[in-house]
Write a structure and sequence with these properties.
2 domains; 0% strand; elongated; 212 residues; mainly alpha
């Protein structure tokens, strides 16, 4: 995935937090790893990632995209190096994300080559909040069985959760429907929120196997 500096910084911050959360966990325990996506599921999620990146690079959603074969996933920490190598191999001598003009509009050729590099070497769909039904089900079970009891024990309400079927049926795999923090956390002070997140961290993104 190619993002601007702010986006990349935010992604790295999330990854650092993911590494620290197991050390912060109190009454919350992470779930078990779920089966890796099938070939069809993985292609469906990767196609959604390609659509997002195509639009991010300022191409029209309706314009035809070149077919690109998936090669392998890239660790988010290595995207700059991976895409620089790919772009330079495509003929963009000395190309790096910092000197790229791809996000400023033209030249179209550079943006197109960058799209191809990203499509060949994407970040795993889970970093976009894209999951398979099995993974969404595992997230829901973890919320229900571990995170919700922790939050309630801390004296914070969680509202009325969706059913498991509703949660898993989120359109296009986006996990945007509900988290246990939604009802209670907005009414807390910043200090109270930090205390809650420290005591009851959301570890749902830390127990999936890497898709590589």
């Amino acid at each position: 995935m190619r993002r601007d500096n702010k986006e990349m910084t935010r992604t790295r911050a999330v990854l650092v937090l993911a590494a620290l959360l197991p050390l912060l966990a109190g009454c919350v325990t992470a779930g078990e790893a779920v089966p890796e996506p099938t070939v069809h599921e993985l292609e469906t999620l990767n196609e959604r990632v390609r659509q997002l990146q195509w639009q991010f690079l300022q191409f029209s959603p309706d314009s035809p995209r070149p077919p690109v074969d998936f090669v392998s996933f890239v660790d988010p920490a290595n995207t700059e190096q991976a895409y620089a190598a790919c772009m330079q191999a495509a003929g963009h001598e000395g190309w790096t994300p910092s000197n790229s003009s791809a996000l400023g509009g033209p030249p179209i050729g550079e943006r197109l080559d960058l799209y191809i590099c990203i499509a060949q070497y994407p970040i795993a769909p889970s970093y976009y909040g894209l999951y398979t039904p099995a993974q969404l089900g595992a997230i829901y079970d973890y919320y229900r069985d571990s995170l919700v009891p922790c939050i309630r024990a801390a004296g914070v309400g969680v509202g009325e959760p969706p059913t498991r079927a509703e949660f898993v049926a989120i359109p296009k795999g986006f996990r945007v429907l509900w988290t246990p923090y939604d009802a209670g956390a907005p009414g807390l002070t910043q200090t109270e929120k930090q205390s809650l997140y420290t005591k009851c961290p959301d570890l749902s993104f830390s127990f999936f196997a890497d898709w590589e």
